[in-house]
Design goal:
- The structure is a homodimer of 200-residue chains.
- With 200 residues, chain A is mostly helical.
- Helices cover 74% and strands 0% of the residues of chain A.
- Chain A has one domain: Orthogonal Bundle (Tetracycline Repressor, domain 2).
- Chain A contains nine helices and no strands.
- The longest helix of chain A is centred in the middle third of the chain and has 25 residues.
- The radius of gyration of chain A is 19 Å and the shape is elongated.
Chain lengths: 200, 200
């Protein structure tokens, strides 16, 4: 999925917008085909099922997020700031997923099962990215990590936990601004405490 | 519910054991009455409905937990150690609630609605207890809290989040030892990072 043709990219864009507006179940392949000005048969050539298309949309979003984090590694900023950036961008990506209704409370279990693998791979990717930031900070002399692997997992799980708490407030794929702002504040408070907690 | 007669206490004990073994829905008032050797009518005198009885059981557990934390305030230990103790005892209390099936994934929404008030009051109580520990640490010169109220809330929400993550692994009111051990390790790693993160 890393090499996407312009046509495929158009499809993914159109699909993303449809799913974000109407939710997975209400969107038809017909509509998406129309959006990109192609026949239904041609669309099925690229994506045999709606699930495949949705998976590709999510996969693209995941890659975009991971790509943004990868870019951080080329910047001359402290590991601390990379960690802050990670939390900020991860929240934005969460917001995007909420819009894509992957986190809709009603469909959460179904979709999570359907895309279990996709989410598990992504969790591994997240662990790797966080680990890289922490390793960098350790090498730089910024971070003191007694139990290294665990710190990475704890950080990931704390972030996941804060988001999980908020999911119950999500209705119709929309997160209230109030909840988003609360989460944003908690995340930034959390990351500051965490950074200080692992600082040399 | 703070002044409980010995008879009431017997009922609560029996009910707690029944609920823990069979789950809320499978237990009848008849069975509980039999366990304590009283007529069903007498039981209804104390608790007009099974929901009332269940609420009283949960309330008792909440008070036991809060009581254990209150006791910490009379001990000559650092605020740091109080926070460690808080996390440890809170995890044990969570385990107890899992056994009482209040967190059964299938009934979670129902029971949470049924006992919404009970859980909200308890959340406020938890905020107060954590705040007290943090305040003590601030007064002692142990903790540096820039945004005081927020630190309390972030701490509570991080704990809630770590537990929420684990709830999805709970089946039939039983938490696998493996999951419990993982949670325990995460909690203790978390609390150490957090303490260092707020230390002067």
């Amino acid at each position: 999925m890393n090499d996407i043709s312009p046509k495929e990219n158009d499809i993914l864009e159109a699909a993303r917008n449809r799913f974000a507006h109407y939710g997975f179940s209400k969107v038809t392949m017909e509509e998406i085909a129309q959006d990109v000005g192609m026949g239904k048969a041609s669309l099925y050539y690229y994506f045999p099922t709606k699930e495949d298309l949705f998976k590709a949309v999510i996969n693209k979003e995941q890659n975009l997020f991971a790509g943004e984090i990868e870019k951080l590694f080329y910047r001359k900023i402290t590991a601390e700031n990379k960690l802050r950036n990670y939390v900020k961008k991860r929240l934005e990506y969460f917001h995007e997923l909420v819009n894509l209704s992957t986190l809709n409370v009603n469909t959460l279990v179904d979709i999570k099962l359907m895309f279990k693998e996709l989410f598990e791979d992504f969790e591994q990717k997240e662990l790797d990215l966080i680990q890289r930031i922490l390793d960098e900070g350790k090498k730089n002399g910024e971070f003191d990590l007694k139990m290294h692997r665990d710190t990475t997992k704890i950080f990931l799980h704390l972030l996941q936990g804060l988001r999980l708490r908020i999911i119950k407030f999500i209705k119709d794929n929309r997160m209230e601004k109030e909840n988003y702002d609360e989460l944003k504040e908690e995340m930034s408070g959390f990351v500051e405490i965490f950074i200080k907690g692992i600082r040399v």
